[in-house]
């Protein structure tokens, strides 16, 4: 036999309607109506909508070379905005202090140290500093490069080649070699090697530099399969003509800018008068890129969103055709 439960709970009057609230439904109603809980003690309720989603690089530690201006600085900022703790570096102490202060004032978790990647002791100190400060390394962005020569490639000297290859190529490999054991300790990692569209199509008068960037495309391909079993991905970034201090000689000088634009597909007249034209031309942005337009690609490659990508180089060059 079924008996209807008897409830002695007082009725609630809502807009003239009498609503009898059953005791066993009060907790549910309180949750829905945000009524105070009768339970004594400390209790904090938080709606699901107010919870902050985790950033895609949350908990990761990144090390970025040559990163107090230009593309390097933009990459540091983006990685930190996406949740990473970042160790930046530069050859000059004042540049390190300026960049760290600027980014910390923006609430980003960034530290810095002096490092000339061409020097063994500096590379070792950079890695040790990052590990001591943050407990390990998950991400390496190798961005350092030099270019002490412009002119006919046959006029370049042995000293020029030694300096360019030592810093741009050999130091990149040696830094990777230092970082890999640290990444293994954390179960894997991601490496991004910054090359250039000059690695695909040499810039006028920058033969040795362009060759070094081609070598980095090969280094990326060589490292990727060997580090894959260690759960370490290796990818590259090939920026086009980007508005930085390092590349200023390529776009400030009119004669040099004209030659470079003919190579990378940037044309001032077409930029000023951009009308719908052939599909191939429509794909080109016809302008100089900005450092921030490279940073997002690096953050993507370092994240789990790119977990099935290794041994590839992403070209960020406004539609410039890049093929070896």
UniProtKB/TrEMBL annotation:
<dbReference type="GO" id="GO:0004090">
    <property type="term" value="F:carbonyl reductase (NADPH) activity"/>
</dbReference>
<protein>
    <submittedName>
        <fullName>Dehydrogenase reductase SDR family member 4-like</fullName>
    </submittedName>
</protein>
<dbReference type="InterPro" id="IPR020904">
    <property type="entry name" value="Sc_DH/Rdtase_CS"/>
</dbReference>
<dbReference type="InterPro" id="IPR036291">
    <property type="entry name" value="NAD(P)-bd_dom_sf"/>
</dbReference>
<dbReference type="InterPro" id="IPR002347">
    <property type="entry name" value="SDR_fam"/>
</dbReference>
<dbReference type="Pfam" id="PF13561">
    <property type="entry name" value="adh_short_C2"/>
</dbReference>
<comment type="similarity">
    <text>Belongs to the short-chain dehydrogenases/reductases (SDR) family.</text>
</comment>
<keyword id="KW-0560">Oxidoreductase</keyword>
């Amino acid at each position: 036999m079924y008996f209807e439960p008897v409830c002695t709970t007082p009725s609630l009057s809502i807009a003239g309607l009498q609503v009898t609230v059953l005791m066993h439904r009060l907790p549910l109603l309180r949750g829905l109506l945000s009524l105070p809980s009768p339970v004594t003690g400390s209790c904090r309720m938080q709606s699901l909508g107010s919870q902050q989603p985790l950033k895609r690089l949350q908990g990761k530690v990144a090390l970025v070379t040559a990163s107090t201006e230009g593309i390097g600085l933009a990459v540091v900022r983006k990685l930190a905005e996406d949740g990473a703790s970042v160790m930046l570096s530069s050859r000059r102490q004042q540049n390190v202090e300026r960049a760290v202060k600027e980014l910390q004032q923006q609430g980003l978790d960034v530290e810095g140290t002096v490092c000339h990647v061409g020097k063994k002791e500096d590379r070792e100190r950079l890695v040790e500093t990052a590990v001591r400060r943050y407990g390990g390394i998950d991400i390496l962005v190798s961005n350092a490069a030099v270019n002490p020569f412009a002119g006919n490639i046959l006029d370049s000297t042995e000293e020029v080649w030694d300096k360019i290859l030592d810093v741009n190529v050999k130091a990149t490999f040696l830094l990777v070699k230092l970082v890999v054991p640290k990444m293994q300790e954390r179960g894997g990692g991601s490496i991004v090697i910054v090359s250039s569209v000059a690695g695909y199509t040499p810039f006028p008068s920058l033969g040795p530099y362009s060759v070094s960037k081609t070598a980095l495309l090969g280094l990326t391909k060589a490292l990727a399969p060997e580090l894959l079993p260690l759960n370490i991905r290796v990818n590259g970034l090939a920026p086009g003509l980007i508005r930085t201090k390092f590349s200023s000689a390529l776009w400030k000088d009119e004669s040099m800018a004209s030659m470079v634009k003919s190579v990378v597909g940037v044309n001032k007249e077409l930029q000023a008068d951009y009308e719908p034209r052939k599909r191939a031309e429509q794909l080109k942005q016809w302008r100089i890129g900005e450092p921030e337009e490279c940073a997002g690609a690096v953050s993507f490659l370092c994240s789990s969103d790119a977990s099935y990508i290794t041994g590839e180089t992403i070209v960020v060059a406004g539609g410039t055709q890049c093929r070896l």
